């Protein structure tokens, strides 16, 4: 639990968008996922997956592996160690925010707005 005057927890701006967060969460549940599986899970277009993966890859959060299955090209995605750490930190921050909101919603006097 945070002290009353601690600064709010820091969300990771790279993954705070709901679709990026969904992609990161999906990838956290597997060692590696095929591009199409990520696309289908997030219910977004190939172009959107590509943009999201590029941003996450630039941040060092996602690894991309290309290869072939038979004669068909495939792309596999996975979280890097840094990506897993960033996701865990982001989820911790969200949890802290949610706990504060829950506490103050049930006890409006739990947080003072005066010094």
UniProtKB/TrEMBL annotation:
Q: Could you tell me the superkingdom of the organism this chain comes from?
A: Bacteria
Q: Which InterPro entries match?
A: WH-like_DNA-bd_sf, WH_DNA-bd_dom, WH_DNA-bd_sf
Tell me the ranges covered by the Winged helix DNA-binding domain, including all copies: 20-97
In this record, what's one Pfam family? HTH_34
Q: Which residues form the signal peptide?
A: none
Q: What is this protein called?
A: Transcriptional regulator
User: Organism source for this protein?
Assistant: Nonomuraea deserti
């Amino acid at each position: 639990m945070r002290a009353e005057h601690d600064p709010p927890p820091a969300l990771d701006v790279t993954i705070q968008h709901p679709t990026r967060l969904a992609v990161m969460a999906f990838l956290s549940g597997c060692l590696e996922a095929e591009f199409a599986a990520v696309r289908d899970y997030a219910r977004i277009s190939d172009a959107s997956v590509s943009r999201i993966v590029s941003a996450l890859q630039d941040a060092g959060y996602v690894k991309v592996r290309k290869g072939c299955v038979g004669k068909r090209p495939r792309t596999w995605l996975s979280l890097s160690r840094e990506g897993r750490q960033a996701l865990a930190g982001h989820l911790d921050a969200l949890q802290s925010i949610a706990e504060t909101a829950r506490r103050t919603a049930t006890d409006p006097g739990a947080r003072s707005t005066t010094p």
